[in-house]
Fold this protein.
Amino acid sequence: MKACPSCKDSMRSCMESHTFAYAHLYSDEKAMDMHIHDCYEVYYSISGGKQFLIDNCFYTIEKGDIFLINQFESHYLSQIDSQTHERIILSIAPDYLKRLSTEKTDLDRCFQFRDTRMPHRLHLNPEEQSRFLYYIHRFAENQGLGEDIIDEAVFLELMVFLNRAFDRRCRTLEEESTSGAPGYRSQVDEILSYINTHIQGSLSLEELSSHFFLSSSYICRIFKAATGTTINKYITAKRITLSKSLLSQGYSVNEACEACGFNDYSNYLKAFTKAVGISPKKYAQFNS
């Protein structure tokens, strides 16, 4: 399989073939604005020196970082220094990955499983970095008879490797949250559960304070300490994610606005456009 000359070409080839494609890039392309696309994206940084914004979360990219982005997560890449920008972009058609999954092995998991403790970024150790690049080089070396079969076999190995790395990261985070963690962890878990099941409601800080019999300042402090973000930012991000899913299912913009808990259309329009980079109406047109 030949590498695509740009990120956009990789996405286009992926969606046209309904399989996957990749690009190994060294120089900067013209940066895209905040965007989404119909394919999964694996972004692997070889040189670092950039900054990623994914669904309202900022990440400073280091060498060996890998980002796993699904089709509903808006993202934007910006340059923060003048170093050479070497990276691998792997574009994957979601239906293709679902077709390759089995009852025992869900290859979608690393793209679809999200909670406040599971970031989009994995940092690969030197051995894992070498292994990832080994798979990518196999694609480049594979030509001629049986190319499609070998490409798919290598791709399957690569996806199992990524999901195992992802699961290790999940287990590590779970262990960190249960062993030696502050006593407020269980309180934050209850708050998160309440937010997730009442996302259509107003969910004001005062209401949360009244429901849990805790002061507003205490709730804000423990939530930020446990999750790394504020309650308001978490609720907004959760509602935007739900809204994108509803719009993709055919809901109207007004229906999505109401169903995801925004009580004011202008606030919904402003928040959605800021997070995703396009208006809810345009998003629905592109993803329905």
